[in-house]
Amino acid sequence: MPPVDRRRIRGPDESHSPYHFVTEESMKCLASGDRRVDVSQRGPLDLRPIFARCGLISQAKGSAYIEAGNSKIICSVYGPRETERKDETDMKSGRLVTDMRFAPFACRKRGAWVQGNEEKDLSQGLLESLRPGVCLHKYPRSQIDVCVMVLESDGPALSHAVTCASLALADAGIEMYDLVLGCTVRHTGTTQLLDPTFAEVQDDQSGASVDSQGTVTLSLMPNMNQVSGLQSDGVMEQESIKAAVQACIEGCFKLYPAIQHTILKTVRKKAPPPES
Amino acid sequence: MDVNEHEVSPATREFGCEQNLLSRPDGSATFIQGNTNVLAGVYGPAEVKVSKEIYDRATLEVLIQPKIGLPGVRERAREQCVRETCEAALLSSLHPRSSLSLILQEVHDDGSLLACCLNAACMALMDAGLPMSCLFCGITCVISTEGQIITDPTLQQEKESRAQMTFAIDSIEKRVMMSSTKGSISVQELQEAIALSQRASERIFQFYRDSVHRRYSKIQ
Amino acid sequence: MILFNSFRTADPLEYHKSFLKENCRPDGRELDEFRTTTLNIGPISTAEGSALVKIGNTAVMCGIKAELTVPPSDTPNKGYIVPNVDMPPLCTSKVRSGPPEEQAQAASQFIADVIESSEIIRKEDLCIQKEKLCWVLYCDIMCLDYDGNLLDTCIVALLAALKNTQLPKVTINKDTDVPEVDLLQKSPININKHPIGSSFAVFDNTIIIVDPTGDEESLATAVMTLVTDEEGRLCALHKPGGTALSGEKLQHCIGRAATRHREIMKLVDKIIESMKK
Lengths: 276, 220, 277
Fold this sequence. Notes:
heterotrimer, A: alpha+beta, 5-stranded mixed beta sheet, C: alpha+beta, Ribosomal Protein S5, domain 2, 32% strand, Rrp43 (chain C), rRNA processing (chain C), RNA-binding (chain C)
């Protein structure tokens, strides 16, 4: 039994998600969730339309919000500020701290308030993807905090979190070598789906067993054309991984103009060009 | 132990109080209202953690320990009420960059617990000799299902009530410093309850005076 | 401009008081003026009900998740409502990651008390079968941007999210004794009362301002939150300490809270009406 959380109001000891008891007929309505049915509308290698904005959180040094389909992610950046851990040996370069969380209502099943292992892994993944892009040597003895909150999760969240966090870092005016963009490919058998939704990932997990299936998440610095993070889960053949990585890189380049546009808009708003 | 027994309207239970009963804290007191009993200890002014240091006044920490189990969210909310009331009464700017801690141990709860916590806190702060701009007292009122307002209720009366209010009243102008309510109350009921609490507060302050007087008259 | 900003940093209290003396506030508001309140109902599709509320810069999101459980043994005909307020490190630089701090915990308790006092929902309505099955509504309230007046924002977010909540129909299969959930038939829950909060900040019992910002809250000598329902009854008078307040001032605040209740109800109704179209 997990220790009792005394800092929150507790409900009953046990409760079950209504989705465990869904009747067959209504299961169909649930099953017809967000998927690529019509290739003419959204092909397997098309991203979901993305909405990105900077500077929504007044208290933060920089912030960003990204909406891709139903996925909604908000991120704020605080710092550079005095580092909390003074015992760190390396004081010459700054410390990047990431904290990624899911809101309790972000997934179909209610999540806990306490940060779980999955969230800790994602935080670490986020940190490792972002770190190569940030000029940390410019911030000695200080700490930059990146807080990501997934408000609604529809499909793998890490790639959007990376994009969102790098936008927020840029909004905070933190010096960076390049933006970091994230992209995910879901590979099943012979098909590859870029930027998959929850229903699409769910499908092949419950569907017939396929020899090779997996998810590849990649972070790319588009100007330098360098990969800063790569994460692959599942079983895939070498060729499929290669193809998935290629698809991710292409996906990032598709995403780039939209993100550039957002940054441009933010800069224009903060420092309007002189009227001539 | 001092016990005050005269009966004036509005009705309250018997009060009892003993100060300076613990040797380790810098100030301590126990306060009894009927069967409700709270023990308070004050430490400070002492050195403060750098992270909690406030440059122009003392940092006050309040801890409420329930009779059984560990403190939860409800205790945290009560701690906030007691702390902010004490902060308003204490002249904490006289002790900048230092820490004051107040620990309240629930000994027995038979209704009006928050009020009793406030009373014990005030007596303990007095015993610690900390400078204050005013004294304060806590008083709980409940509205029974018949619409009658009862001051200083027992646990049974609290359970049978439809609304409950706890106020902290200051000793100078008898104004409301803290208020915490439960249940739906009409504006008129609120005003009546405040007026009753203000009258009841006079008795509590008189009791404060008597017990302090009695304590020091023994010393000579 | 630079001089002005350094005055604000060097002596924030004097800075605010110099405005209050002239009966206005640093952000240009009158003393009894609320910041612009905006409402977005139902932004989260994974929740049974949700709302994003902004009062000025302060933004709060409330998501309602419903789960099935056994009713409490002492009240077998009632369901559960479990509210929790969290201020993650995302919302302000003052909070560090970790468990919720005192302010968030006190806010959770306050919201729980308001739900209890106002009877916003009849808990009997959440019971599906006596002693067997009931709903538990987890009302998770998350602050996304903290610039004062958390409690008011939380109450509006909670109310709007509950109004948006749709629960699927549940029947208990007589043969197997297992609940069956029909997602095709969803119905809203009955909102019994509409509590709305109004927060005030007091400067030395002389000046009272409504809807304090984060700066104003930290400089004020006391803060107070009044919650009223549509019948003008008080569901909460929450003043966690601070300097004392006289009866006349309190009366003035109660009057303002009643007007605020009407303003917010109009706003909520307007948004819900526009969603139907």
